[in-house]
Amino acid sequence: MVFTKFLLLETLFGTSIGMKSLNKVTVMKDEILINNIKFWLDQNIIYCKLYDDSVVDFTCKGYEELFCKAISILSDGSYLPVIFDLSEVSSSVSVKLFKLLSNNCKIRGCVLSKVFLVKNYKQKVLLSYYMLFSDTKVPNLVFKDLSLAERYSHQYYDVFNSISCES
């Protein structure tokens, strides 16, 4: 299974954004590490951790495709909430990532909700301001506390599944 996911990732990412922009792709069971951006699945929540030294090429058109495909592989066709942990990146990078990820229609089509985790209130206020101009078809929320972000994600997932089961 891990080998299959690796081949799938290599094929998907290699053709969509060019291998020269992907320095390192590592896949383990329910975990994907691409250019020091870590994606993993835990208790029906997809986590995406961006580190300060993560390689983010905002000029590359297919970069958002990287996020979408990693999320799609981990969700395996289910709608799951995703938590983007921006707590270790600078404020300017967090704003660029928020703009990229919060309004992306491909990501919006494969997630249940998007939560952005930040390190301080300044970033929370800044991203909340940008949230006023983002599409609300899929909820975008900004949290400073991981436990609150996880609680919200679990509650939203439970509500979605209770409604889906009733239909």
Helix and strand topology:
Layout: H1 2-16, E1 25-28, E2 31-34, E3 37-42, E4 45-50, H2 63-75, E5 80-85, H3 91-102, H4 105-108, E6 111-117, H5 121-131, E7 140-143, H6 146-166
Parallel strand pairs: 4-5, 5-6, 6-7
Antiparallel strand pairs: 1-2, 2-3, 3-4
Question: How would you explain this protein's 3D organization?
Answer:
- The termini are far apart.
- This protein is globular.
- The chain has helices spanning 2-16, 63-75, 91-102, 105-108, 121-131, 146-166; strands spanning 25-28, 31-34, 37-42, 45-50, 80-85, 111-117, 140-143.
- It has 167 residues and is of the alpha/beta class.
- It is built from six helices and seven strands; from the N terminus they run αββββαβααβαβα.
- The protein has a single domain (2-166), classed as Transcription Regulator spoIIAA.
How many domains, in number, for the residues? 1
How many strands in all? Answer: 7
Would you tell me the structural class of the helices and strands?
A: alpha/beta
The tally of helices reads 6
User: Unreliable segments (pLDDT under 50, ≥5 consecutive)?
Assistant: 1-23
What's the name of the CATH homologous superfamily?
STAS domain
Under CATH, the topology can be stated as Transcription Regulator spoIIAA
Q: What distance separates the N and C termini?
A: 33 Å
Query: In CATH, what is the class?
Result: Alpha Beta
Along the chain, the helix and strand elements come as HEEEEHEHHEHEH
What is the annotated CATH architecture?
2-Layer Sandwich
Please state the overall shape, judged from the principal axes of the Cα atoms: globular
The share of residues in helices is 40-55%
In this structure, how is the largest beta sheet organized? Answer: 7 strands, mixed
Instruction: Determine the mean pLDDT.
Output: 78
Query: In angstroms, what is the radius of gyration?
Result: 15 Å
List the quaternary state of the chains: single chain
Strand content: 15-25%
Cross-sheet strand order for the largest sheet: 1-2-3-4-5-6-7
